[in-house]
Amino acid sequence: MVAKLIFHSKYIYHDGAIREMILWKLPTTKDSPQRFIYRLFYGLNDGTPVIRYDNERGKGDHRHVKNKEEPYCFIGIEQLVEDFLKDIERIRGVAR
Predict the structure, then answer these.
(1) Distance in angstroms (rounded) separating the CA atoms of residues 75 and 65
(2) Cα–chain-centroid distance for residue 9?
(3) In tens digits, what is the pLDDT along the chain, a chain of 96 residues?
(4) For strand 62-65 and strand 68-71, is the pairing parallel, antiparallel, or unpaired?
(5) In Å, how far are 3, 7, 41, 61, 80 from 25, measured between CA atoms?
(6) Is 36 exposed, middle or buried (0-12, 13-18, 19+ CB in 10 A)?
(7) pLDDT digits (tens, 9 = 90+) for 42-58
(8) Beta-ladder partners of 41
């Protein structure tokens, strides 16, 4: 099964914090109905993760907030990115 990179963005904030979003598309199969693999990362400039969303094999969709892992209900790419960016804004104390 070959994944195709569909989006990669890396942004470094003025304080050195890092936001990186990587999304791959998979061919649809009966064993893999979800057609995307993703890794969304926000962390400190030393590499310490603060928020991370991913869906690694065996764990499914989930997010890490600091040292806590919790399930994430994947609806679609747009909602995933919106949820991730809202989490970053909340942590950084930025209001929309």
Answers:
(1) 19
(2) 11
(3) 688 999 999 999 999 999 999 999 988 777 666 688 999 999 998 889 999 999 977 788 999 998 899 999 999 999 999 999 999 999 998 755
(4) antiparallel
(5) 6, 9, 18, 15, 14
(6) middle
(7) 999 888 999 999 997 77
(8) 20, 52
Cβ atoms 24, 31 nearer than 8 A: no
User: Where do the domains of the chain lie?
Assistant: 4-92
Cα 10 to Cα 1: distance, rounded to the nearest angstrom: 26
- Predicted structure pTM score: 0.86
The answer to whether the beta carbons of residues 37 and 26 sit under 8 Å apart is: yes
Structure-token pair, residue 49: 């993760």
